[in-house]
Automatic annotation (TrEMBL), chain A:
InterPro entries: GATase_2_dom, GFAT, GFAT_N, GlmS/AgaS_SIS, GlmS/FrlB_SIS, Ntn_hydrolases_N, SIS_dom, SIS_dom_sf. Its EC number is 2.6.1.16. Residues 282-420, 445-585 form the SIS domain. The active site is at C2 (nucleophile), K590 (for fru-6p isomerization activity). The gene is glmS. It comes from Salinadaptatus halalkaliphilus. This is Glutamine--fructose-6-phosphate aminotransferase [isomerizing]. Residues 2-217 form the Glutamine amidotransferase type-2 domain. GO terms for biological process: carbohydrate metabolic process; fructose 6-phosphate metabolic process; protein N-linked glycosylation; UDP-N-acetylglucosamine metabolic process. GO terms for cellular component: cytoplasm. It comes from the Archaea.
TrEMBL record, chain B:
It comes from Salinadaptatus halalkaliphilus. It catalyses: N-acetyl-alpha-D-glucosamine 1-phosphate + UTP + H(+) = UDP-N-acetyl-alpha-D-glucosamine + diphosphate; alpha-D-glucosamine 1-phosphate + acetyl-CoA = N-acetyl-alpha-D-glucosamine 1-phosphate + CoA + H(+). The keyword Nucleotidyltransferase applies. Pathway: Nucleotide-sugar biosynthesis; UDP-N-acetyl-alpha-D-glucosamine biosynthesis; N-acetyl-alpha-D-glucosamine 1-phosphate from alpha-D-glucosamine 6-phosphate (route II): step 2/2; Nucleotide-sugar biosynthesis; UDP-N-acetyl-alpha-D-glucosamine biosynthesis; UDP-N-acetyl-alpha-D-glucosamine from N-acetyl-alpha-D-glucosamine 1-phosphate: step 1/1. This is Bifunctional protein GlmU. Its EC number is 2.3.1.157, 2.7.7.23.
Length: 595, 403
């Protein structure tokens, strides 16, 4: 789980690589490194974030024109200087960066060690430079040696390699993201577009099983057999400007404040109040399937739970699965099944695995993603973009809101069942979100409950997934214990945990069973637990609550979108008061590309 | 010129623009459909400025989330002024973000690049500690007045001898356009200037410079003819929009904007500006001199003239809306009548007679339909008006008006 970057050209290889790593830091940040190739290879790498690497860099000018870089999120071996990429062979002839997991690395390593190779790190990646070196020793030229090594690997990888005495970067991809950039001052490769978007917006997407060779003047893509593949250069619209915090202390707060815009973009041209229609172009070819299975992880899974509910209400059997638990062998999946992968990055390995399984089982697949041209978008039969714009904070905020809205539109478009009120409410939603941002007392409530032992979140119906999401957000960025439950479940166990030091956040809005939820609120009160009601004022819940976070009235199906924003703000301010690393919480990475 | 950093002051609320400033500062109020400060950025960038620092304070989120880290590929650096203790204090907040001579402009007044160019040129060719942009206006009362003396030794039009806020006498004042070029020593000057009533005003600091003339050189003033528009009161947004229309300041137009949807039977009478994702229904009549912000909905057969409707406003069918200013998320009900000015507008103890204002509806005001607004009515944020009611005078925020 990492980000890789490569560059060949005369625009200052060191600077390009370091810029690239900054643009990929969201993919992992426990160590970083670069390698530059001249007659010999110079490697610089450090445990810690990119600023630690910066301090380790050589002073003075760099002659090299080819280089690779890596930002790491540990899978095999703890973060350390030794485990940081790039990895080299013993003689330092070749340096390798890798994102993914090599499943057969232990066997390969045993074989190599038996043949006399000695290893410096605990990583799976280090087998690759040794395999390449072994092939070179057998007389293979650089490219053949690279291909031969890749041929031995099982698992997922995006790999880039430089050799001493060569001004070429070699790369290969299988089940891990890799894109090439075609610029005026050289050629680029990276796990994701932001790495080099400030240099070029002309992109070539690599497919699984393809190899690439880039030097200063050419980009050559080949398949497994070495046959040259015709590639098309696409121009991406990716605003480099979106990579700045614009006066906010954290990307997360910036992104929370961007939610009205995100929703406006998500609905733009899709929702027409005067025509009374919700119309998503990319879904028009889909007919009502016999069943719908959502596959997703983390926050996206919570959006999927909401989407599944909306479909079931409209008579379509729909279930949300955690992608890592989705197994076509144990489920009814066939050609009348629509499998919807919900993934912000479009690269989430668990979700990609589930979608590949669904494709294999003959299902129709749909990606609901934020990243144009991502693996999910290209793997699925259909794609719907949520249009939230780039999200840098590891904790998903605006993309969750956009996913909720996109799935609501999906349910409407698929079944054609929606009323004028919903259309109008969708159009009003950006302003309702803005009104919460203008007036939220989330910060005061966060201060009130800073010392809590744990935070609980409850809600019914549409609000149940938001209760789960509220707890996840709290865990991710505050490192405090937090749990979310459908409100009725509280009395079946978790109530035992409720004390006067465990605030309970109750989502109480019209259309999501408020009366029964208030019953649960009273259960909490009786046990001395403080209650924070997130409410549109229905059923007068304020009478039973210690604090109220208000949300404006809206269509009952959209109320959870609003309640969620209040919970985001509470989590953010708790984390901020506690001085947490909000944009890069410990142990987490934005886009999880390992299973 | 290239070495000049610009500082845009956007931290103050602009209290006289209430209730429109309840949720955002004056620089974010619409000049036609775009925030005032966006037009200030445009003029700076057109004048060749490549480095802009924005001082934010009151409702700073609104500025930051609207523009993000750059505008038209020019980086925006935001610095916070936590307490609004005057324009000098605001500029001091930007000290760490700028280097060398600097250009300072107000983010809440429309000023065109001609004034900026004149100030920059005059400042570059002199060794003055400060150069001020000035305008000849028949009356400067209510604004900053500046007295100028000819000085052949200066590239500008003269040396400044006195600054007077809201002058009441009839000396020959020029109007202070709020466009300044300073040497970095201005920060020391602000420091040295004794605050008045706890406020560090920029004009006091400049007066201080004028007084110690000998030491630092003369403070010079340069006269310009460029466009300068300020909204003093909320209904002035109507005048700001029409001045922009009359000067043909480029903005989106209905014909150019394919992101908006205009029904084929709707009538659009130019000049009109229509924002992204607007919908205009069958038989509706929009214009002339009308600005619709993003996501505005105009229902069937509604009529809108000489109005500035901010984003997310919805006008229900058969409503008539003349000379109206709305905030964001306003709902004008079906069959409601806003008949246009003139009307008397009451602000606190003052009455402004015969203003061309139909009604001013602040953010998230909604009415239930068939409501009549008496000319000059001001309705505070999130007030709710029942169907059939007649509204007059000034309605406080979040009140319910029954029929």
């Amino acid at each position: 789980m990492c980000g890789i970057v490569g560059y060949v050209g005369d625009d200052g290889v060191l600077e390009v690589l370091m810029d690239g790593l900054s643009g990929l830091e969201y993919r992992g940040y426990d160590s970083a490194g670069i390698a530059m190739a001249e007659s010999s290879i110079s490697v610089h790498k450090r445990q810690g974030d990119i600023s630690a690497l910066e301090e380790a860099l050589p002073d003075g000018s760099v002659e090299a024109t080819a280089g690779i870089g890596h930002t790491r999120w540990s899978t095999h071996g703890p973060p350390s200087d030794a485990n940081a990429h790039p990895h080299t062979d013993e003689s330092g002839r070749v340096a390798v960066v890798h994102n993914g997991i090599i499943e057969n690395y232990q066997q390969l390593r045993d074989d190599l060690e038996a043949a006399g190779h000695s290893f410096d790190s605990d990583t799976d990646t280090e087998v690759v430079p040794h395999l390449i070196a072994a092939a070179r020793d057998d007389g293979a030229d650089r490219e053949s040696a690279f291909r031969r090594a890749i041929g031995r690997l099982e698992g997922s990888y995006a790999i880039a390699v430089v050799f001493s005495g060569s001004e070429t970067v070699y790369a290969a991809r299988n089940e891990s993201p890799l894109v090439l950039g075609v610029g005026d001052d050289g050629h680029y490769l990276a796990s994701d577009v932001p790495a080099f978007i400030e240099y070029t917006d002309r992109i070539i997407y690599l497919d699984d099983g393809e190899f690439a060779r880039i030097d200063e003047s050419t980009v050559v893509v080949t398949d497994t057999d070495g046959t040259v593949v015709d590639t098309s250069i696409e121009t991406v619209e990716w605003d480099a400007e979106d990579a700045g915090k614009s006066g906010y202390d954290h990307y997360m707060l910036k992104e929370i404040n961007e939610q009205p815009t995100a929703v406006r973009q998500c609905c733009g041209e899709r929702v027409s109040e005067l025509e009374r229609t919700i119309d998503v172009d990319s879904l028009s070819a889909l007919s009502v399937p016999e069943r719908v299975q959502f596959v997703a992880c983390g926050t996206s899974y919570h959006a999927a739970l909401y989407g599944a509910r909306l479909l079931r209400e409209r008579g379509v059997p729909a279930t949300a699965f955690l992608a890592s638990e989705y197994d076509t062998a144990t489920l009814p999946v066939d050609e009348s099944t629509l499998v919807v992968g919900v993934t912000q990055s479009g690269e989430t390995a668990d979700t990609m695995g589930a979608l590949r399984g669904a494709n294999g089982a003959g299902a129709t697949t749909l990606a609901v993603t934020n990243v144009v041209g991502s693996s999910a978008a290209r793997t699925c039969d259909h794609v719907m973009y949520v249009r939230a714009g780039p999200e840098i904070g590891v904790a998903a905020t605006k993309t969750f809101v956009s996913q909720q809205i996109a799935l609501a539109m999906l349910a409407c478009e698929l079944t054609d069942e929606y009323d004028d009120d919903l259309v109008e409410a969708l159009r009003d939603l950006p302003d309702k979100l803005q009104s919460i941002l203008d007036s939220s007392s989330g910060r005061e409530i966060a201060r009130e409950y800073l010392e809590a032992d744990a935070y609980f979140f409850i809600g019914r119906g549409y609000n149940a997934p938001v209760a789960l999401e509220g707890a996840l957000k709290m865990k991710e960025i505050t490192y405090k214990h937090a749990e979310g439950f459908p409100a009725g479940e509280l009395k079946h166990g978790p109530l035992a945990l409720v004390t006067d030091r465990t605030p309970v956040f109750a989502l109480v809005t019209a259309g999501s069973n408020p009366t029964k939820t208030i019953g649960n609120v009273k259960e909490v009160e009786t046990r001395g637990g403080p209650v924070v009601a997130v409410t549109d004022g229905c059923d007068d819940v304020a009478r039973y609550a210690d604090h109220v976070l208000e949300v404006p009235e809206t269509h009952s199906a959209l109320a959870p979108v609003l309640g969620n924003v209040q919970l985001q703000l509470v989590s953010y301010w708790v984390a901020n008061e506690l001085g947490r690393s909000i944009d890069k919480p410990r142990n987490l990475a934005k886009s999880v590309t390992v299973e | 010129m290239e070495s000049l950093s610009a500082v845009v002051l956007a931290a103050g609320e602009g209290k006289r623009l209430r209730p429109l400033t309840r949720n955002r500062p004056k620089p974010m109020l619409p000049a036609a459909t775009r925030p005032i400060i966006e037009r200030v950025f445009d003029e700076l960038i057109d004048a060749g400025i490549t480095d802009i620092t924005v001082v934010v304070g009151y409702c700073r989120d609104r500025v930051q989330s609207h523009f993000g880290p750059t505008y038209r590929n020019v980086a925006l650096t935001y610095v916070g002024q936590d307490k609004q203790l005057g324009s000098g204090h605001a500029l001091a907040a930007a000290q760490s973000a700028v280097d060398g001579p600097l250009l300072v402009v107000n983010g809440d007044q429309i000023v065109d690049r001609e004034i900026i160019d004149d100030v920059v040129r005059a400042h570059e060719s002199a060794t003055a500690p400060a150069t001020l942009g000035l305008l000849r206006r028949e009356t400067v009362s209510g604004y900053g007045g500046v007295l100028l003396e000819p000085d052949a030794g200066l590239p500008a039009d003269g040396r400044i001898v006195e600054l007077v806020e809201r002058p009441r006498d009839d000396r020959n004042y020029r109007l202070n356009a709020g466009v300044y070029a300073f040497e970095p020593t201005i920060f020391e000057t602000i420091d040295e200037t004794i605050p008045r009533a706890g406020e560090h005003s920029l004009t006091d600091a400049i007066s201080h410079l004028v007084e110690e003339d000998d030491a630092a050189g003369p403070v010079q003033g340069v006269e310009s003819d460029g466009l300068w528009v300020d909204a003093t009161y909320p209904w002035d947004l109507l005048r700001v929009a029409s001045e922009l229309f009359d000067r043909d300041v480029p903005d989106r137009t209905t014909t150019a904007d394919d992101l908006a949807s205009v029904h084929e039977t709707a009538v659009v009478r130019e000049p009109v500006v229509v924002g992204d994702n607007c919908e205009i229904g069958p038989g509706a009549v929009v214009g002339p001199y009308t600005c619709l912000g993003e996501n505005v909905t105009v229902g069937t057969n509604a009529v809108i003239e000489r109005s500035v409707l901010d984003s997310q406003t919805r006008v229900r069918p058969n409503a008539t809306v003349l000379e109206c200013v709305t905030g964001q998320g306003v709902e004008i009900g079906a069959g409601t009548t806003i008949g246009g000015g003139p009307g008397d507008v009451r602000v606190g103890d003052r009455v402004f007679e015969d203003e061309d204002l139909g009604a001013l509806l602040a953010d998230r005001v909604s009415d239930g339909g068939d409501v009549t607004y008496v000319p000059g009515t001001i309705v505070g944020t999130a007030a709710e008006v029942s169907a059939g009611a007649t509204v007059r005078g000034t309605v406080p925020a979040q009140t319910e008006v029954r029929s």
